[in-house]
Design goal:
CATH architecture: 3-Layer(aba) Sandwich
Helix content: 25-40%
Radius of gyration: 18 Å
Bound molecules: adenosine-5'-triphosphate, magnesium ion
CATH superfamily: P-loop containing nucleotide triphosphate hydrolases
CATH topology: Rossmann fold
CATH class: Alpha Beta
Distance between the termini: 36 Å
Strand order of the largest sheet: 5-6-7-3-8-9
Largest sheet: 6 strands, mixed
Number of helices: 8
Structural class: alpha/beta
Number of domains: 1
Strand content: 15-25%
């Protein structure tokens, strides 16, 4: 299903072009981070890839096919959890898969252990804190062994230690062979996690470069302005 190629992707609600010709090519390895100002269309792009919305134009090609051949999972900014136990939230998500009940329970216990929620397995998921909910949502996606994991601001509103826990889980999921495509407004997180940065603004991908290069030498005026505005200090970029 890789390389994943987006060509001329458009999303134009009520005549307003939010995405106005997005071109992007993604390999099947590593962590790609989408950066861009509020309203740039980052969440939208993830939703289009997850087929949660139809595009108004352009194409998405997975390898050489119009449909992804591998599993795809998405974790939203506010994860939707079932009003059931932590354990059942993961186990339930595995039911459509060709697994025996015993295998499902084993896999569920395994991922809960790995995200540090094994001791909360019997608690109602709705009682979890924000950081714990994110870890549970990640565990649920991880359990499905996705080939592509889409994460929308996975640590928004989490404290530094919860953020670190989530970042560690994201790295592990990547190491196990999933391609990760995520958004964040946390530039520290982008520098810690990203292999490459996709900078989205004015309806298009303005830059898609290795992360180090993006932060040291942003090329587009929009990216420079974005970084200047997001950082608590002002930096002068070298050319
Ligand atoms: N289903 C939809 N129908 C119509 N307009 C939409 C839809 N989804 C998103 N939009 C609009 O598209 C624009 C981009 O939204 P999106 O949520 O993708 O931004 P974002 O880059 O994720 O911003 P943020 O950084 O604030 O999360 C917004 O103006 C939003 O109102
Ligand atoms: Mg968003």
């Amino acid at each position: 299903m890789f390389p994943l190629k987006l060509s001329g992707l458009r999303f134009v609600p009520d005549g307003r072009a939010v995405l106005d010709g997005v071109d992007l090519e993604l390999s099947g390895e590593g962590i790609s981070v989408i950066l861009g100002p509020n309203g740039a269309g980052k969440t939208l792009l993830l939703r289009l890839l997850a087929s949660l919305l139809p595009a108004d134009g352009g194409t998405i090609i997975w390898g050489d096919s119009a449909q992804p051949s591998g599993r795809l999972a998405m974790v939203f900014q506010q994860p939707m959890l079932l009003r059931m136990s932590v354990f059942t939230n993961v186990e339930f998500a595995l039911r459509p898969q060709a697994m025996s009940a015993a295998e499902r329970r084993l896999r569920t216990a395994e991922v809960l252990e790995r995200v540090g929620l094994a001791h909360r397995a019997k608690d109602c998921a709705r009682l979890l804190s924000g950081g714990e909910r994110q870890r549970l949502a990640l565990a649920r996606s991880w359990a499905m062994r996705p080939r592509l994991l889409l994460l929308d601001e996975p640590t928004a509103s989490l404290d530094p230690s919860a953020t670190e826990a989530v970042e560690r889980i994201i790295r592990e999921i990547r190491t196990e062979g999933a391609k990760v495509l995520m958004t964040t407004h946390n530039l520290g997180q982008a520098t810690r996690l990203a292999d490459d940065i996709i900078f989205l603004a004015d309806g298009r991908v303005q830059e898609h470069v290795p992360a180090q290069r993006f932060f040291a030498h942003p090329q587009s005026p929009a990216a420079r302005a974005f970084l200047q505005g997001e950082l608590p200090w002002r930096i002068a970029f070298e050319r």
